[in-house]
Amino acid sequence: MTARLRSTEHDRGQATVELSLALPMVCLLLFAVVQVAVIGRGQLAVQLAAREAARAAAVAADPVGAGNTAAHRAVALRPLVVEISEHGGTVTATVRYTDTTSVPLVGVLLPDVVLSATVTMALEPP
Fold first, then answer.
1. d(CA 125, CA 70)
2. Tell me: the pLDDT tens digits for 30-83?
3. Global confidence as pTM
4. 84 near 62, Cβ under 8 Å?
5. 122 touches 58 (CB < 8 A)
6. What does the alpha-carbon distance between residue 63 and residue 55 come to, in Å, rounded to a whole number?
7. How far is residue 122's CA from residue 76's CA, in Å, rounded to a whole number?
8. What are 32-35's contacts with CB under 8 Å, separation 24+?
9. Full DSSP string of 52-111
10. Contact call for residues 120 and 92 (beta carbons, < 8 A)
11. Longest dimension (CA), the chain
12. 4: buried, middle or exposed (CB in 10 Å: 19+, 13-18, 0-12)?
């Protein structure tokens, strides 16, 4: 019985030490997951802007102006780079956005991410 008591007395505080060693890594992992979610949100927004730009450009008399306006109205990300091109009855909208990695601790470890999306639609007469 005394051997059991001795081993328990020496183990006192072990969980606290293990937690203090593991907690920084758990926090870093949590911040990395948040950063990935922020980048995913940005990619979805860029895809939406590209779809809206292609749709507006496909039905407008001025495809470039309509596509730029539609992309900027669709999302709040700034600055968006919007390119509209026409090729043989189709219009292609390409939207790019540079997402800064700004989540604490993780943002300094990762470079900024360039998000892009391209959508092609058939031209419709205005």
1. 18
2. 999 999 999 999 999 999 999 999 999 999 999 999 999 999 999 999 999 999
3. 0.83
4. no
5. yes
6. 9
7. 26
8. 32/103, 32/106, 34/103, 34/106, 35/101, 35/103, 35/106, 35/107, 35/110
9. HHHHHHHH-SSHHHHHHHHHHHH---SS-EEEEEEETTEEEEEEEEEE---STTTTTTS-
10. yes
11. 92
12. exposed
Output the six-digit token pair for 2: 């005394």
Q: Do residues 100 and 112 lie in contact, with contact meaning Cβ atoms separated by under 8 Å?
A: yes
What single letter denotes the amino acid at residue 60? A
- The phi, psi pair for 39, rounded to 5°, reads -65, -40
Domain range list for the chain: 2-122
Residues 79 and 64: beta-carbon distance below 8 Å: no
Task: Give tens-digit pLDDT for 78-94.
Answer: 999 999 999 999 999 99
Structure tokens at 11: 């183990």
